[in-house]
Amino acid sequence: MNKTSLLVILLVSLTLAQDNFEEDPNMLYGDFGERNLNAEEGGDRVLASSKLRITNDFTYLTVGSDEFLNYVKGELIPAVTSYLQAAVSTNYPLTSPITVTKDTLCGRATPQALLTGVKTDFYVIYSSKTDTGSWVASATSCMSSTGVKRPIIITIGLNTRTLKVADINDPLLHDVNINTLTHEYIHGLGLNGVHFNNFVDSNGKVLTGHVKKVTLSGIDRTVLDLPSLTTRIRNFIGCSSIPGYFLTESGSAHPEERFFRWDIMVNGASTGSKITQFTLGFLEGTGWYSVDYSYAEPYFFGQGQGCTFYGDGLVASELEEFCTGTDMGCTDVGDSGGYCNGSTDLEGYKVITAQPLLNCENPKGSSYTVLALASKQVYGRGLGSKCFTGNLNAKKSVSQASYCLTYQCSGSGTSTKLELNFGPTKLTCTEKGPMSVDGYVGQINCPDPIAYCQTIGKPTCLRNCMGRGSCSSGKCYCSSGFQGTDCGFTA
Question: Which CATH class, in words, describes the domain spanning 356-454?
Fold first, then answer.
């Protein structure tokens, strides 16, 4: 099989991780005491929130190989739990243990620990099975508190056939798994239609009028108008008339991919997905949680594009977020090369879809270099490589391709320079446009150095080091017991 044929297969098979989200109409409610940390107490307003205590129950996590179970229990679930406990706190901690008096819960026998009581704020019951479907993980809400009706018990199911085991040598797969599982936790924490009408304001009063129906491009859509979240979206896009957080046209609990392409809550997690300010903003908007926005990842899709981005007459060719044709290019997050493709959720629009073997952080991608010498293109997480486009080649001009190059940003303001490395040859981009490179035929497409160095090119720490280390100058320094570029693995 030649390289081109293999890439076509990868394009189809290695992009998305689907979830199988469920809403339980038979929600249980439990009264275990809730302390409203935003309420008036003794005349003094309590502003602090409480760390979200998460308990993971593995009673039904039994199906799968030892390798699968060890990875899920020892690496994947602890990493996601660490991240969420660092990023999210609760305004309504429980003051007494969660105790279930019924013998069954969410269609299974109630775990023994819950029959006797568990001191926690959020209890997750895991299960696993081998299923022929394409889904990777599923989430179901089981119990909410009686006060503000905050979800307190959920189940998460994992499909052993589709959730693949990763190790420290396969960080991109671990990324997808982390994003997929985080996606399910956030469904469980409240991004679920059964919870929408229970959201509260800062005083604990039930919100009203925040679930809206809006017609856009001839389609009736569900929109959540949560004040803090809506304000963030409007400021980010630069449009004061955006009605709120658009969900998919079916009304399911996923944001519209057309507007939130790289957000992890889009239906299907791809390499390069981000835990965005909107992901965390939704949790804050429920009124049940406070969030630390330093744990939101950089995100630029649609930034500053104005009301046209949400308009009925959106023209793909007028916005850089969308592509036309089938050419190669770089994703909007700058980490990978890919091809221009569409999907049903994109409503006819197309974006550059990342390909794992063209990802600039994938150590296995070096064999797919376009330039004659692989050393000119640097692959591997932590090596500072990003995706650039052009028709560069050593001997003859080629059609547009993607290149993984290390780079440096220097200067500030209008004097910002972007330097691209081609082995011993260097090219300084001083403005946006094609530039020739000594020793090569064709040109490289320089991005605008000011915009690039303030966005995609700015060093960042993945997921702010998962709550397992400190971030300095875009590099994670892991606490004892953890390792990896994002501290996502145990040492």
Answer: mainly beta
